[in-house]
Design brief:
The complex is a heterodimer.
Chain A (H helix, E strand, L loop, with lengths): L1 E12 L6 E12 L3 E5 L6 H8 L7 E6 L2 E2 L5 H11 E4 L3 H4 L6 H11 L4 H14 L15 H13 L5 E5 L7 H18 L2 E5 L11 E6 L2 E6 L4 E3 L11 H4 L5 E6 L2 E6 L18 E12 L6 E12 L3 E5 L6 H8 L7 E6 L2 E2 L5 H11 E4 L11 H11 L7 H7 L15 H15 L3 E5 L7 H18 L2 E5 L3 H6 L2 E4 H4 L2
Parallel strand pairs in A: 3-8, 3-9, 6-7, 7-8, 16-21, 16-22, 19-20, 20-21
Antiparallel strand pairs in A: 1-2, 1-4, 4-5, 9-10, 10-11, 12-13, 14-15, 14-17, 17-18
Chain B lengths: L1 H12 L1 H38 L7 E8 L8 H16 L4 E11 L2 E8 L6 E6 L10 E6 L11 E9 L19 E5 L1 H4 L12 E8 L7 H21 L4 E3 L2 H17 L1 H35 L4 H38 L3 H8 L3 H23 L3 E3 L2 E3 L1 H18 L3 E2 H6 L2 H7 L1 H27 L5 H12 L1 H39 L4 E5 L7 H4 L5 E10 L5 E8 L19 H8 L10 E2 L6 E3 L2 E5 L2 E8 L5 E9 L2 E3 L2 E3 L8 E8 L2 H11 L10 E6 L8 E3 L2 E4 L2 E6 L5 E4 L9 E5 L1 H6 L5 E6 L2 E10 L10 E5 H11 L8 E4 L10 E5 H10 L1 H35 L1 H9 L4 H37 E2 L17 H23 L4
Parallel strand pairs in B: 3-7, 5-6, 12-35, 15-32, 29-31
Antiparallel strand pairs in B: 1-8, 1-9, 2-3, 2-8, 4-6, 5-7, 10-11, 13-33, 13-34, 14-15, 14-30, 14-33, 16-23, 17-22, 18-21, 18-24, 19-20, 19-23, 23-28, 24-27, 25-28, 26-27, 29-32, 30-31
Helix pairs in contact in B: 1-8, 2-6, 2-7, 2-8, 2-9, 2-23, 3-5, 7-10, 7-14, 7-16, 7-23, 8-9, 8-10, 11-14, 14-15, 14-16, 14-25, 15-25, 16-22, 16-23, 16-25, 23-25, 23-26, 25-26
The chains are: A alpha/beta, B alpha+beta.
Chain lengths: 502, 973
């Protein structure tokens, strides 16, 4: 039986800068019990597809059915009923999905409670699921007291507690390290197969393909290719649209088609293959930043958690360093300490020879302004600024000319979206804006926190290459907290935090 | 109930966040509660004051039986039982009895004889001792007033003399004793006195009274309605047994007080309406600040499959909890503040609270308002923008359009005055809610106008430093919350400014009313109980003024008040306001002033003349002759030369001191009195033959040469031919300077419209018709209510006394002095005392105090709004602020960024609030014609702004807001 049938879906968002098409004739079918992973670069329409399937958005055109429900016509109680009984949904921002006031047990039981299941039974179900995902001991903990992986596991339990017929997950491991991500995918597979749930996972993580029955690629709001077991099949969309994979296309804008027996051959015209930026050969220069005997404890008293202790690291100019390690090992914390956005419990950080302990908050801010660039995960950019203004503001703050904004945005592939407000950009596009902003500033120390977490592989490679090139050409010390193998591959130095400061 | 449980968990987890929202709602509810308590307290004080102003004997509930016992079927004990039984439930106090035999002779003494229960408490002993309790066989008496009197009856003994204590409620029974009135003899105890063996007593009329005094403070405004009903019940009960019984109480006074105090109470709806709008405005503001969190919760719950009803229930439960708790706290705090206000006004604080808030109606209103607040919050949380014909409307826009419709409807229905308010018609209430509605509409309009302003600011600041640019960008591009903050700021500052300006208007109104009513520091008038003229009592003192009533026949007749005063004094008259006329007082004075001050002609009497002898010859019938002398002090004296028959006479008459040095301005010839008497009888049927007129010729000396005659008097050379009768006196007088010349007058617009060609207008005053020539128009003139005619005093007097010599004189003196003159024979009205009385009026004090409180609360709420905005911005934008910090924005710049936005809101809000408050103040002053003391304002209220106070208040607001915002962002890193 067909569980999901989406035909010729269009979704167009009006905006102050003009209409933006997130879906452009997407057609997709998912069979009951199937586990489909949807890949696609940021802005390709993955999340929009999931929002439509979740009944949180409606298509501008086209049809979409989930089992017996026509999602275009579902309204009011029927829609709520569809969401509460048929659907299970896990968001890419598990932190946003989990009410901070409730315990893990209450969160998992909440859906059943809302369905009117007795509190005893919902509690038992919650206990069983939490035990199944190894969080039995954390059942009374609130989200703020759990690590990212733990929170995502709770979110999965909460989404599956009522045994939905369709489970959809939007980049469920976007904010997790590789180990946790693998664990989550395994859990998704196990839990969905145990319950016989049709599952649709949107991801950029190639590892997720391992648990999929079928992998679907989405580009520019259409399904571009499918893979079931063997190689990828390009999908010919209505009207004969076919998407040539970017890695084949390179940077060309024209191609020549040559029908031949057994197929159609595509020849790129004036192809400029994207050079894969090799790791820098340059020798590391002087130390730009160093951590000396660093320790950090979160919280106080019995609830205090030590993130790391006696951590000593040095980051040299011209070097691209990767801080790796599972979730909860303190990668982001270390970057915040290096940026002077947080204070260590013990030890000190020196940036360009200046001990940060000797600076007050204003001094730290001025140091960041002059010498440090921080690439956040892009979710906290000022939403009412355009991509260009975001970069220009940072440049203005640092006393640079605004002219550097356009090349930086072009470098991350956002030239066409430069005048879109950040609020209208996808999460991956926002992340690229954050990267462009850091690149444009050309700081002595560039800190990046999971900069490719929401990027597809091609974009992740491009970012890795950009970082490597920046380090090589400008002598910038680049420090990335990441679990992305693509970035790690481009880095010159890897600091596995779990073994260094645990 | 999962949603409820979830709401409880969320409320417990976010106590701090909800507190600010709750504070605003509590403050709004508090103002309403305080207004309600204040209104009751004000009404009670008004009632107390009116009752205190009554004569003690009127300030009591009394049952009175007057009659002859022998003719009655009820004995005194039965009457006593009946009366006490009927009166006791009225005030729940026992009555005391009174008995009086008015002006009767007992044992040879002509006295007022009577008895009073508990007599000693009403007396002040002057000599002897107070009587012991009366027994039928030995009844001691005390004498009050009069010559010593003692009835020669063995069981009556006078043992002392006394006077009534001030405040004794007995004057209705024992009118004040005096030297020429029979003394009052009183025994202690009516019951025993009624059994004394007074001779023929059963056959003699007497009055029994049972009195329950209304002690000050013993009865309150809220008791008055029930009191009236209980008095009616007592009356019915007593009449049922004896129709001679009557029950009296100051019911008319009570009704009048209730009407006035009701006006004051209704007018407080102005504040109530403002408070309600402020409360609802704050609810919307608070909701927008909670919206981000609410949206996140809604999204989560939707992902979790919650139905729309369940999501709504979570929000509703949270909002209801915040609203209910804060409303309860607000009402409790408002009760306390109201109780303090009531005590400040001299009313019993908690009783006022009890009768204003602890009533079913008040609970209903409180519950309804809390529910409305919750609904508004919920709507603000959930409502999205509405697109209508290409225009995007927010919920606030839709509400403002509704409010605008209500305003237009209300204005179309007319003005609100004291009578409208007293009748409590719907129109009055709607009109009084106008300020709140207008403020709301103006606030939304201001917010709508703000968007282009913000875009202009963004453009202007594009080259500014990054924090400034960012602040302006955030205002221009994400204006939703900013607009609502501005709306609320405009509302709260508008309420404050309105309260300040309306208060200033009412306060200035009190001064203006006092100065208008009494246009000089002291106004001296003739005391009608003493009949001493101002010229007699205060000669040559201050400015003489003539005030009289008159009418014009044109335009179906218009009554007017004539005010004649020396033109030169008009610029110095107090109480003049520039809106009374397009002309200045100085210009009016110039227009009224004659080129030369006119004066009646005649011949002067020597200053030392004690007698006047007037040689004359009468040829013809007997005629009465009087000389009309214009005294030097300004009034007239008639010197009667007598009725003289044919022949030559030299009558001499004594010249009273006031006439010495005066001027003889006319000779009055009259029909002899005897002849007039007989003529009257003949008309009624007598057979006697009498003449109808005296006809003859009079020869006078040369001092009368050139004089002219009127009403049957004709002058031919030295002879004066007269024909006089009873119809009117005939006059012989000199030709006067204003003979046939119209008097320049300033009149009110209605009279001006009634004028004929050339602005001439016949003015009928005191049976005379003086032709006026309109030289100016004034809508009002101090001390005059209604249509007016103002003239120069000498000109008017000359003109009027030309027509009828000796009839027009000044009746008032306006005195510019620091201390009041000691002239007991005149009624003296003090401008300062009038103003003090207006200021001391409890209704006025209450209204002004409440307005001040509302202003302060408005400002406090504005500051809370700013704080709420900054705290909300900081909370909602944690991520963005962190990102900015990561880019090197210093903590000080981050703080400046947030504070700049708050400052922009405050500045725009203050500007809009001042404009909105001014508009509302002007509207209220124009529409609500009620003084601070709930009376009709004369002159009408004129809008006033106490700018120094407003500026200080706004400075405090800015400082307070800045301090609060500074505290909110001080930990920003």
């Amino acid at each position: 039986m067909t569980a999901v049938q989406a035909t010729d879906l269009f979704r167009i968002y009006p905006s102050a800068e003009g209409a933006a098409a997130a879906l452009q004739g997407l057609t997709l079918e998912v069979e009951e019990g199937e586990l489909v992973v949807v890949f696609g670069p940021s802005g390709s329409g993955k999340s929009t597809l999931l929002r439509i399937l979740a009944g949180l958005d409606r298509p501008s055109a086209g049809t979409v059915r989930v089992f017996e429900h026509d999602l275009r016509t579902l309204r009011g109680r029927a829609l709520a009923d569809y969401r509460s009984r048929t659907l299970g949904y896990a968001d890419q921002h598990y932190g946003r999905a989990l009410a901070p006031e409730l315990t893990a047990r209450e969160l998992v039981a909440l859906r059943l409670d809302l369905l009117g299941v007795g509190s005893a039974e919902s509690g038992r179900t919650a206990d069983r699921l939490l035990e199944r995902v190894g969080l039995a001991e954390k059942r009374d903990a609130r989200p703020g007291e759990l690590s990212g992986g733990q929170q995502q596991r709770v979110a999965l339990c909460a989404a599956l507690s009522h045994r939905p017929r369709l489970f959809i997950a939007d980049e469920p491991t976007g904010e997790l390290d590789a180990a946790n991500a693998a664990e989550i995918y395994t859990l998704i597979r196990e839990l969905s197969h145990e319950a016989g749930v049709t599952t649709l996972v949107v991801s950029h993580d190639p590892e997720s393909a391992a648990v999929a029955d079928r992998v679907v690629q989405i580009r520019d709001g259409r399904v571009s290719s499918e893979r079931r077991g063997g190689g990828d099949d390009a999908v010919v969309n209505r009207g004969g649209w076919i998407r040539i994979p970017e890695e084949l296309l390179g940077r060309t804008t024209r191609a020549r088609l040559e029908p031949k027996p057994g197929g159609v051959f595509v020849h790129t015209v004036a192809a400029e293959a994207l050079e894969s930026a090799a790791p820098s050969e340059a020798q590391p220069g002087a130390v730009v930043a160093e951590a000396v005997g660093l320790a950090k404890v979160h919280g106080r008293g019995p609830r205090a958690t030590e993130v790391f202790h006696d951590l000593s690291l040095a980051f040299a100019g011209g070097a691209f360093s990767a801080i790796t390690g599972p979730s909860g090992t303190g990668k982001s914390t270390l970057l915040h300490l290096l940026a002077g956005l947080d204070r260590p419990t013990a030890g000190d950080v020196r940036v360009l020879g200046t001990p940060l302990s000797g600076l007050d908050d204003t001094g730290l801010a001025l140091l960041r302004r002059s010498s440090i660039g921080l690439v956040t995960q892009g979710t906290d950019l000022v939403p009412f600024l355009t991509a260009r203004e975001t970069v220009e503001l940072a440049l203005a703050l640092r006393g640079h000319e605004a002219g550097g904004a356009a090349p930086a945005l072009a470098a991350v592939g956002l030239a066409e979206l430069a005048d879109q407000r950040v609020a209208r950009l996808s999460m991956g596009e926002r992340q690229r804006v954050a990267i462009a902003r850091a690149l444009a500033a050309k700081p002595a120390l560039l800190l990046a926190d999971e900069p490719t977490a929401r990027l597809d592989e091609a974009n992740a490679r491009a970012v890795g290459a950009l970082f490597a090139e920046l380090a090589r050409t400008t002598g910038t010390a680049i420090v990335c907290a990441t679990h992305d193998p693509v970035l790690i591959e481009h880095s010159q130095v890897e600091f596995p935090l779990a073994t260094l400061g645990a | 109930m999962v949603p409820i449980r979830l709401a409880v968990v969320r409320l417990r987890a976010h106590v701090q966040r909800n507190v600010l929202a709750a504070i605003g709602i509590a403050v709004g509810a508090g103002i309403l509660a305080m207004t309600a308590v204040g209104a009751v307290a004000v009404q009670d004080r008004a009632a107390q004051r009116a009752l205190a102003g009554l004569q003690p004997s009127d300030r009591a509930v009394q049952a009175v039986w007057s009659g002859v016992p022998a003719q009655s079927s009820l004995s005194y004990p039965q009457l006593d039982r009946l009366a006490r039984g009927a009166l006791e439930p009225v005030l729940h106090h026992p009555a005391f009895a009174v008995e009086v035999f008015r002006q009767a002779t007992w044992g040879g003494a002509f006295v007022n004889l009577g008895a009073v229960d508990g007599l000693s408490r009403w007396l002040v002993l002057r000599s002897g001792r107070l009587p012991h309790a009366c027994t039928p066989h030995d009844c001691e008496l005390v004498q009050i007033g009069g010559r010593p009197a003692a009835p020669k009856l063995p069981f009556l003994h006078v043992v002392g003399r006394a006077t009534f204590r001030s405040g004794a409620p007995l004057s209705a029974y024992f009118s004040a004793a005096g030297a020429n009135r029979p003394p009052i003899l009183l025994a202690d105890g009516v019951s025993a006195f009624a059994r004394t063996p007074l001779p023929d007593a059963p056959l003699i009329a007497r009055t029994y009274g049972w009195v329950v005094p209304l002690a000050p403070g013993s009865i309150h405004d809220w008791d008055l309605a029930a009191l009236g009903a209980r008095i009616d019940r007592a009356q019915s009960q007593l009449e049922e047994r004896s129709d001679i019984f009557s029950v009296s109480a100051p019911l008319d006074t009570i009704a009048s007080v209730r009407a006035t105090s009701r006006v004051a109470g209704e007018r407080l709806l102005v504040l109530g309406g403002d408070a309600a709008v402020l409360l609802l405005g704050f609810a919307v503001l608070a909701s927008t600040r909670l919206r981000r969190d609410y949206d996140a919760t809604r999204r989560r719950l939707t992902w979790f499959g919650a139905g729309r009803g369940q999501v709504l229930l979570v929000a509703a439960a949270e909002v209801a909890a915040i609203t209910v708790v804060s409303s309860v706290i607000g009402w409790i705090a408002g009760s306390g503040a109201g109780a303090l206000l009531a005590r400040h006004l001299g009313a019993p604080g908690w009783l006022a609270v009890d009768h204003s808030l602890f009533t079913v109606r008040a609970f209903g209103i409180a519950a309804a308002l809390a529910a409305l607040t919750a609904l508004v919050m919920l709507a603000a949380l959930r409502l999205e923008k509405i697109a209508f014909g290409g225009v995007t409307l927010t919920a606030a826009d839709v509400a403002a359009l509704g409010a605008l419709a209500a305003i237009l409807l209300a204005l179309a229905r007319g003005k609100t005055d004291t009578s409208t308010l007293a009748s409590s018609g719907g129109t009055g209430i709607v009109l009084l809610l106008l300020p709140g509605l207008v403020l709301f509409v103006l606030a939304v309009a201001a917010a709508r106008l703000l968007a282009p302003l913000l875009r202009a600011l963004e453009w202007a600041g594009r080259r500014g430093p990054p924090p400034l640019r960012l602040a302006l960008l955030s205002l221009a591009r994400s204006p939703g919350a900013v607009l609502l903050s501005v709306v609320f700021f405009v509302l709260s500052v508008g309420v404050a400014l309105f309260a300040f300006s309306y208060r200033a208007t009412l306060e200035r109104g009190e001064v203006e009313q006092a100065r208008y009513a009494v246009p000089a520091p002291y106004v001296l008038q003739e005391d009608l109980s003493k009949l001493v003229t101002v010229q007699q009592a205060a000669p040559h003192l201050g400015t003489p003024v003539l005030r009289d009533q008159g009418y014009v026949t044109a335009d179906r007749g218009i009554d007017f008040t004539l005010l004649a005063l020396p033109a030169a004094t008009i610029p110095h008259v107090d109480g003049w306001r520039s809106d009374f006329s397009s002309l200045t007082p100085r210009a009016l004075a110039q227009l009224l002033a004659p080129p030369v001050t006119p004066r009646l002609r005649g011949f002067d009497l020597p200053a030392n003349a004690t007698h006047l002898t007037l040689p004359l010859t009468v040829s013809g019938d007997r005629v009465g002759i009087q000389l009309n002398v214009l005294d030097r002090r300004g009034d007239f004296t008639l010197l009667a030369l007598g009725e003289l028959g044919r022949g030559t006479h030299a009558p001499s008459v004594r010249v009273p001191p006031e006439a010495r040095g005066g001027r003889v301005v006319a000779v009055r010839l009259s029909f002899p009195q005897t002849a007039a008497f007989v003529a009257g009888h003949r008309e009624s049927g007598t057979a006697l033959s009498v003449n109808d007129a005296s006809v003859g010729t009079l020869r006078l000396d040369r001092r009368f040469a050139g004089w002219i005659g009127t009403n049957g008097v004709h002058v031919r050379g030295a002879s004066v031919r007269y024909v006089v009768n009873r119809a009117s006196d005939s006059i012989l007088r000199p030709s006067e300077p204003l003979e046939g010349v119209p008097v320049p007058v300033v009149v009110s617009p209605d009279l001006a419209r009634a004028a004929g060609a050339g602005g001439l207008l016949p003015l009928h005053v005191e049976d005379e018709t003086v032709e006026g020539r309109i030289v100016g128009i004034a809508r009002r003139f101090p001390s005059v209510d209604g249509d007016l005619v103002v003239a120069d005093l000498p000109t008017w007097l000359t003109a009027a006394n030309t027509i009828e010599p000796g009839t027009a004189t000044a009746g008032e003196v306006w005195l510019d002095a620091r201390k009041p003159p000691h002239i007991p024979s005149l009624a003296i009205v003090s401008q300062r005392a009038t103003e003090a009385a207006l200021r001391g009026d409890p209704l006025a004090r209450g209204s002004l105090a409440l307005l001040l409180a509302a202003a302060v609360v408005g400002l406090v709420l504005a500051a809370v709004g700013v704080l709420l905005g900054v705290v909300g911005d900081r909370r909602d934008e944690t991520g963005e602020l962190f990102d900015l910090s990561a880019q090197g924005v210093t903590p000080a710049q981050l703080r400046r960024h947030l504070l700049l936005r708050a400052l922009a809101v405050a500045v725009v809000g203050i500007g809009g609030g001042i404009a909105a408050g001014a508009v509302v103040s002007a509207l209220v002053v124009a529409v609500v014609s009620v003084t601070a003391g709930a009376g009709t304002p004369l002159p009408p209220l004129a809008l006033a702004f106490d700018w120094p106070l407003v500026l200080v208040a706004l400075a405090c607001l800015l400082a307070g807001s800045a301090a609060a915002a500074g505290v909110a962002v001080r930990r920003l890193r």
